[in-house]
Amino acid sequence: MNVLMPQLGETVAEGKITKWFKAAGDAVKPGDNLFEIETDKVSMEVPSTTAGMLEEIRVAAGEVAPVGAIVAVISGTAEAAPPVPFRAPVAPPQASPPGLVAAMPSPSGSAAVASAPIRLDPFFEVRTAARNYGPASLPGGTVVTPLARRLAAEGGIDLNRVSGSGPRGRIRARDIEAVRARGRTAPIGTPLSGPTVDEVKALYRERPFEEVALDGMRATIARRLVQAKQTIPHFYLTADVEIGRLIKLREEANASAPKDADGNPAIRLSINDFFIKAWAAALQRVPTANAVWAEDRILRLEHSDIAVAVAIEGGLLTPVIRAAELKSLGAISAEMRELSGRARERRLEPSEYQGGSSTISNLGMYGVREFTAILAPPQATILAVGAARRQPIEKRDGGIEFTSVITVTLSGDHRVLDGVLGAELLVAFKGFVEQPVTALV
């Protein structure tokens, strides 16, 4: 049986094998871990689903293989494929429905009609794919339509330097035509009018520096953020929110929380847990804003699936709390702690960080007073949360008192919501934070 590089998300085009748990000649049985893979977002152990002998390892630890490439052969269960050099050309994977994992090139090396998939298990999929038809994928997962590929080849255009305007950054024919009209392209992660690598290096030729190559995660972040700023009409709304009552409620909740065997609180709520709950409730209060952009239509979502930005080494991930409006603060806290822990280890499943109604990015713990965040398509909103500060406010009786205040900034996609709708969303969030009990009922 051929063991294939699995697909770990719709936008993942390749994976790096970081470790083999078995050696050639070892016996394997269902459930035995074969190897560990690392993509631009996650690390994951891939188990065997069949018994036999690991006859051949074709992709060594430390090497990168595209989705669908044969990385090993297990004998004793199916006829093994003849050895082929790993570096030989393979067809890039087509976008697959959920559950389809890998694609294999036509044995003859020529175009063939795609056959129905033969399902083996969630990680391995044998599929005959046409090499010259259907969209291809660039490293990092960007999909390129067949016509765009042909136009790029005819015009000598490097697809890695093109920003796609389609869903998930898909590169279409009109993107190639736009590049032709401009007469030049730019490297991944730089503006179209930015300097080239050689031009930048020339500025510092007399100064010592170290070149740091982009890893998969940083290259993906660079490309998607440039694409987001170039293709999404951002607008920004900022508001100050009092959190004095929220802080008091949090202190009372933590003080009265049940203790474990060691006398420590079984649940310890964070300020961010309250923000997640309040943002979820606000999206339910203003359901028109609980939506995402889908190129020629808007998708309005039923539940508030809140993504939370978590900093990890080399980048960030956004684990998602699904249906946060239905969950208690304790459930949100426990789930967020578990997801963020696995995010830092890069061991999240794609289903745990993809999608989401909206995102919260909180830099308050770093003392950042306020900032604006870039949208993560297809989401239409992201909330940037700053640090708490003590500030005097006027009371209704004319007196002055000090209270804790944060500044939040909403980034919105003007294609999905207008300024007034964004303001209504911020007002709802402000109300739930300043009267936190109302978010819990």
Would you write up a description of this structure?
The chain is of the alpha+beta class. It folds into three domains: 1-131, RNA polymerase II/Efflux pump adaptor protein, barrel-sandwich hybrid domain (OB fold (Dihydrolipoamide Acetyltransferase, E2P)); 137-223, Irregular (Dihydrolipoamide Transferase); 234-440, 2-Layer Sandwich (Chloramphenicol Acetyltransferase), CATH 3.30.559.10. The chain is built from eight helices and 25 strands. It has helices at 146-155, 173-182, 197-203, 216-231, 244-255, 271-285, 329-344, 419-434, and strands spanning 2-4, 14-20, 27-28, 33-38, 43-47, 52-57, 64-66, 70-75, 104-105, 118-119, 125-126, 128-129, 136-137, 143-144, 234-242, 291-293, 298-300, 306-308, 310-312, 315-317, 320-321, 358-362, 381-385, 389-394, 400-413. Strands 15, 18, 21, 22, 23, 24 and 25 form a seven-stranded mixed β-sheet that branches. The protein has a four-stranded antiparallel β-sheet with strand order 1-8-6-3, with no helix packed on it. Helix 1 (146-155) runs parallel beside helix 2 and helix 6 (271-285) crosses helix 7. The longest helix has 16 residues, at 216-231. The radius of gyration is 25 Å and the shape is globular. Mean pLDDT is 81; it is low at 78-134 and 184-192.
